[in-house]
Design goal:
- This is Tautomerase family protein.
- This protein has 129 residues and is α/β, with parallel strands linked by helices.
- It has a single domain, classed as Macrophage Migration Inhibitory Factor (2-Layer Sandwich), CATH 3.30.429.
- The chain is 27% helix and 21% strand.
- The strands form two sheets. It has a four-stranded mixed β-sheet, covered by helices on one side. A two-stranded antiparallel ribbon has the order 5-6.
- The longest helix is centred in the N-terminal third of the chain and has 19 residues.
- The radius of gyration is 15 Å and the shape is elongated.
- The two termini are 14 Å apart.
Length: 129
C-alpha cells in the first residue's frame, strides 16, 4: 500500500503524466511485489519558481517520494530505483533528473481498514521481498 507522489517543475501532456504514474506503479509491482490494483499515486506539478532544484538539473527534474510499509530489502529498493529511472527515461527524463526518497513509518503508524493499526491487520501480502 505505498503512497507515492511525483513532483515535477513543468507542465507535461496528459499522456506523459499517465506514463509517469504508470511507471511508478509498474516499478512498485515489479520490485516490491505490490498487489495488483494497489495504486495510490499523486502527480503534482509546480511552477519552476516554486520548486527549487540543484543548479545542475534541468526543468525535467522530478522528485518521487514513496511512503511504504517497512520490510523491503536493499536489493528490492535498488530494483525499485532502477525501474523508476529506466521507465522515466522512456518518457524522456534523464537519470540525473530523477530523485527518489523512500519513507518507511512503522506499521503502527498506519491507520488502515477502518482505522486499525496496520501492525494488527493481516495485510495479505509479504513485506520481506
Amino acid at each position: 500500500m505505498p503512497l507515492s507522489r511525483i513532483e515535477v517543475r513543468r507542465p507535461r501532456p496528459d499522456h506523459e503524466v499517465h506514463a509517469l504514474i504508470e511507471a511508478v506503479y509498474q516499478a512498485q509491482r515489479e520490485a516490491l511485489g505490490v498487489p495488483e490494483g494497489d495504486r495510490q499515486i499523486r502527480y503534482v506539478e509546480h511552477r519552476p519558481d516554486r520548486f527549487a532544484a540543484p543548479p545542475t538539473r534541468t526543468d525535467d527534474y522530478t522528485v518521487v517520494e514513496i511512503t511504504l510499509f517497512p520490510g523491503r530489502s536493499i536489493d528490492a529498493k535498488r530494483a525499485l530505483y532502477a525501474s523508476i529511472v529506466r521507465r522515466f527515461g522512456e518518457v524522456g527524463i534523464a537519470p540525473d533528473d530523477v530523485f527518489i526518497v523512500l519513507h518507511e513509518p512503522p506499521l503502527e503508524n498506519w491507520g488502515i481498514r477502518g482505522g486499525q493499526p496496520a501492525s494488527e491487520v493481516d495485510l495479505g501480502f509479504p513485506l520481506d521481498v
